[in-house]
Prior knowledge:
By secondary structure, the chain is mainly beta. 8% of the residues lie in helices and 44% in strands.
Amino acid sequence: MLNTRxxxxxxxxxxxxxxxxxxxxxxxxxxVDSFQxxxxxxxxxxxxxxxxxxxxxxxxxxxxxxxxEIVVLDGYLFNQVLAAVSAGESPVLTLDGAIEGRNGSQERxxxxxxxxxxxxxxxxxxxxxxxxxxxxxxxxxxxxYRSALTI
Length: 151
């Protein structure tokens, strides 16, 4: 066997039941059925004279969060969106994403200065399925890596 590293052992894999999203007050956003945080690297491309190879140089990095929640009640995110629509300006949110390991370790990342971006659901209704809402945020603050997931 070539791969003897325990960290690649599927028995240590985590699933959605081991994760949670929290607001800035440490309250669980329990209606959330999925969330995804991404870093988008936006590079500048250029092609020097006399060369056919296109090159890239780092320019900016954007942090985005996409959240989906089932509709149980008018929860925290829904109320924040409605307040933003009424005020004409997005609130600035802080969110904590956490994944818990089997050994009690926890990966925790804090996302700061997040504002609503793009389309955000007010009501999204279809027959025969759970009613869900989705939210999109852009984070203007740097993510803070607070603790690591280990085995």
